[in-house]
Amino acid sequence: MRRQLAALLSGTALLVAAAAGCSDGGGTGGGDSQPGQPDQVTVGVIPILDVAPIYLGKQQGFFSDRNIELTLTPAQGGAAIVPAVVSGQYQFGFSNVISLLLAQSQGLPLKVVSNGNNSTGVDGEDFAALMVKADSPIQSPKDLVGKTVAANTLKNIVETSVRASVRKDGGDPAAVKFTELPFPEQPAALEAGRVDAVFVVEPFQQAVLAQGGRKIASSYVDTAPNLAVALYFTSQQQIDRNPDLVRRFTEAMQESLAYADAHPDEARAIIATYTQIAPEVIAKLTLPKWPADVNRESVQTLADLATEDGLLTKPADVAALLP
Amino acid sequence: MRFLGVAGLLGFGALLELAPRVGLVPERYAPPISRIAVALAEQAQQQRFWLALSDTLRTWIIGLGIAVAAGVVLGVVIGATPLLRAATASTIEFLRPIPSVALIPLAVLLYGASRSGTLVLVVYASFWQVLVQVLHGVADVDPVARETAHAYRLGRWARVRYLVWPTALPYAVTGVRLAASVALILAITGELVIGSPGLGREIAIAQSSGAVPVMYALVLVTGLVGVAANVVTRAAERRVLAWHPSVRGEVPV
């Protein structure tokens, strides 16, 4: 219910925000530098493990070192963050690659400023997995033909990735059915048999494992090697208005990503501060990879797959979106 | 009677404890109340919990304050001016039934995931509760008393102070009490959907963290806040209306 509401809301907001963004070139939020004062920067994030680096980087002072006073605002999903960045309420945002490609193909003036997080690239040991019940007859992705898979958002990265797994396994990717279900509800739906498979990210991968579920594919791994799953972005107006701030933010992000990738224990510790994931679950989580640079080929692969699967009606301009 | 109420509460608690334990509902998604209580105790030791609680209370009080002030002032002004009243009646009846949550896209657009966005919802929903009650109250002024005030040539201000206000006050207080619970509901809704700081956002975070007992613990807290809010507004009502027959409990003369 909430997700549908959020989707409806963001759809409307997106349109109006786009209109507003075109007309006045920026909102009332911070991001303006006063002489001698640090830049006030608000970043829209999703309270999941993917964004651990930015929390860690803030704690480590990578942003304050560059005269950026960072406020991290947890939002309900990437769909709510894009309009807020376009309208200038947030200076930067975090969103998955497909959402950004969709927004860009609709003409929203977005620009990626930093990598977000990537799949581990290790089959069977990723932070997301396509999973079935212990006693399910489904053994591999091609068995999903004609079956129903739960996706947290329809027409988005989950659909693209799951179809990639089915395609790789020799099945017909178009014959998989998807039903929209928020991640928190997927383990229960799988157990009750309301869906045949789920595509869950951590910590719900642990929840499905705890109820005896089985991984049949690491779809992010099947989609592209070291797939870039999500990215940090800003609006073109923000770049035009304060290119120096954007440059400093990108540098701070690169340092944060490298630090988080090199210090997984500190990343786990910071996750406990902004989520409510139980400590015993945090210890077991499979963390994503946090490379400092965007894997451009994987973004292009996602754009091609999204066009092939009909998510993108117009081809997205990957080169224009990426820095 | 009081004993029955406590017994009923304990019985309900026992049901919540036993239903998951005997497997009536899956324990993983509906943990027994004792585990929720443990999660609540753990939350109570964390600063972020108290911050969220104070954020919710602040949003509630600010929103309610704005709604009550605007509702009372506009109610008295509109209600006391027949021309204004006739001109605004249909507009009010049109705007009032619009569910506040329908304004979420607008609130997000104007203010983003900030307290102001949630305040839009809170003020919009609770404002009508107060306004409509005050309008009814102002309309309820006894015609004989009005004529008398007129005969004594009471000025505009004196009429409001000694005639309109005492008549409208019981209505206004009822409006405030209704508005208080509506404001709390909308404050939590806004936090949950928009993501402005407060208990609602913590519930959403607990949900997306798969922390089921914590989520229920926070839901329980919102319930307790609701009960507390009701107790406070009822106490305030008794104090403000101490002179009124309905509170004095005597036979009106």
Describe the overall structure.
The complex is a heterodimer of chains A (323) and B (253). By secondary structure, chain A is an alpha/beta fold. Chain A has 2 domains: 2-119 and 227-321, D-Maltodextrin-Binding Protein, domain 2 (3-Layer(aba) Sandwich), CATH 3.40.190; 128-223, D-Maltodextrin-Binding Protein, domain 2 (3-Layer(aba) Sandwich), CATH 3.40.190.10. Chain A is 43% helix and 18% strand. Chain A has helices at 2-24, 52-60, 78-86, 97-105, 157-168, 186-191, 204-210, 219-223, 236-241, 243-262, 264-274, 279-282, 296-308, 318-321; strands at residues 39-45, 68-74, 92-96, 110-118, 128-132, 148-151, 177-180, 197-201, 214-217, 228-235. In chain A, the strands form 2 sheets. Chain A has a 5-stranded mixed sheet, sandwiched between helices. In chain A, strands 7-6-8-5-9 form a 5-stranded mixed sheet, with helices on both faces. In chain A, strand 6, helix 5 and strand 7 (177-180) form a beta-alpha-beta unit. In chain A, helix 1 runs parallel beside helix 3, helix 2 crosses helix 10 and helix 2 (52-60) crosses helix 11. Chain A is globular. Mean pLDDT of chain A is 84; it is low at 1-31. With 253 residues, chain B is an all-alpha fold. Chain B has one domain: Orthogonal Bundle (MetI-like fold). Chain B is 80% helix and 0% strand. Chain B is built from 11 helices and no strands. Chain B has helices at 2-21, 33-44, 47-80, 82-95, 104-111, 115-139, 143-151, 156-193, 199-208, 212-240, 245-248. Chain B is elongated and about 75 Å long. The chains are: A alpha/beta (323), B mainly alpha (253). Chain A binds chain B through residues 2, 5-6, 8-9, 12-13, 16-17, 20, 29, 44, 46-48, 73-76, 80, 83-84, 87, 89-90, 183-184, 187-188, 191, 203-204, 206-207, 211, 274-278, 281, and chain B through 26, 28-29, 101, 104-105, 108-109, 111-114, 192-195, 201-202, 204-211, 214-215.
